[in-house]
Amino acid sequence: MPRGEVPWWTGWTTPDVLSRRLTGWLLAAPALVFTVLLLAVPLGRTLLEGGVNLGVWRDPYFLGRLGWTLLQATFTAVTALLLGAPLAYLLSRYQVPGKALFLRLLLLPFVTPTLVAVLGLTALLGPQGWLTRLTGLDLSDTPTLLILGNLFFNLPVMIRLAYGGFSRVSPALIGAARSLGASPWQAARTVALPLSLPGLAAGFVLVFLYSALSFGLPLALGGEKYATLEVEIYTLTALQLRLSEASALIAGQLVLTLVATWAYTLLTRGGVGVPARDLPRATGAARTGLLALGVLTVLICFSPLFAVVLRGFLGSAGPTLVYWQGVLHDGQTPLLLGNTVRFGLLALAGATLLGGLYALGAWLARSRALDLVSLLPLMVSPVSLAVGYLLAYPVLAASFPMLIAAYTLLALPLVVRSLLPALRALPPRLHEAARTLGASGWQAHRTVTFPLVFPALRGGSALALATVLGEFGATLVLTRPEWATLSTGLYERLGRPGERNLGEACALASVLLLLAITAFTLLDGGEGEVT
């Protein structure tokens, strides 16, 4: 526990502590059972069915896939750290107009559907991309597009976590270093950097995991040459039915995921931001750094979105509406849109109920195990889970409840990870003050706890809904033709040759992007976090 932090159980007797911890575990029980049934059982069934052929790890081909997966994830994490950490530090130390809005907009790439990002990067840097035509540099057969796609999604994660880490460093410490003769760079290196290392390390681990477990990006942009373990798992299970090899890959991926997730939970425990008032305006090198890093971040994180929207209105002969007409007059589009919204809202309802109870339980129980479990659905391969559903629940595998349950599992951790920090940040004596005024435990939570954390609940729900609207991996395995969503319709058009299909795919991607932005804007209460 950080020095000076008041224990949350101050004033409680030992029986009170035990009672609240027991209550916490009971509140978390429904989500725990759900996670066991929808995560542990399917993965265990997949491993049992395949028998885990460990000889796979002696095969040079699969070792090469493992090496490439780790290499591209490490390179992405290092690049995100080198770009995101300096920008986050400058944002935390200087008054920047529009800073709050910029940090909020950085959540947009995180909730952008994967295939929208794929189309945007292709429109910019693909064989017929605009920058390719201008420079003659075709990046379609290189890993560059995959790395840029990883950065598109994960650079905002690094910036936000690093910003949180630097915000925990008191401005007085920086000022003391400066008063002793340290330059701004020396104060940042010798004071701010060591104190913010947990936040930076957490950002590095999370970006590494997200990049290593990504499915849609390497499937669409990597090709056979740059396929990752996630793509290999999908190929071995869904296409080739080679479960023994796939089980070994899944087992190795699980070990990596559990170790990294455990490290992440250790790095992010404790500490709150220190409010910094009267920050100075950036001048000189600081202003130049803010401008340069800010522009580079905007290009990486937002230019693919602009590209995909513009591509839906531009053909080889110039501006056109033919792509949008094709999408709007296609009788399947209302079905795709309706299914996407319906599935997303049903998943949101389940995730909000289960996630709210789980976050409250984890807060009361103060259990590191509950903290770890809440992250696992984010860190486990959706493709592996979807295949596990087919094996563990063959009767339910092609059923509507199973599809919604899979969506709910993906949305659940986003609600928990937004709500739990807000609960932990509550002043510990507020609840006790309500109890001393005669309120019951339930009344105290209803009148004090819930109103204070409601903005965080809204923010987490916004992240969850916007994310599941564009979910692709599990949908690709579990969906039926009558359950097609905007993501599967978009993927189908991408598989067809021709400029018209590409243009219609961009128009459909714009619809999906607009839907995700609308959902996020309507629900977001200003407190949602990425993790």
From TrEMBL:
SUPFAM superfamilies: MetI-like. It is found in: Cell inner membrane; Cell membrane. Residues 66-267, 337-523 form the ABC transmembrane type-1 domain. Pfam families: BPD_transp_1. Gene3D superfamilies: MetI-like (1.10.3720.10). Keywords: Cell inner membrane, Cell membrane, Membrane, Transmembrane, Transmembrane helix, Transport. The chain crosses the membrane at residues 25-48, 68-89, 101-125, 145-166, 187-213, 246-267, 288-314, 343-365, 372-392, 398-420, 502-523. It is a multi-pass membrane protein. The keyword Transmembrane applies. Belongs to the binding-protein-dependent transport system permease family. This is ABC transporter permease. It comes from Deinococcus antarcticus. The lineage of its organism: Bacteria, Thermotogati, Deinococcota, Deinococci, Deinococcales.
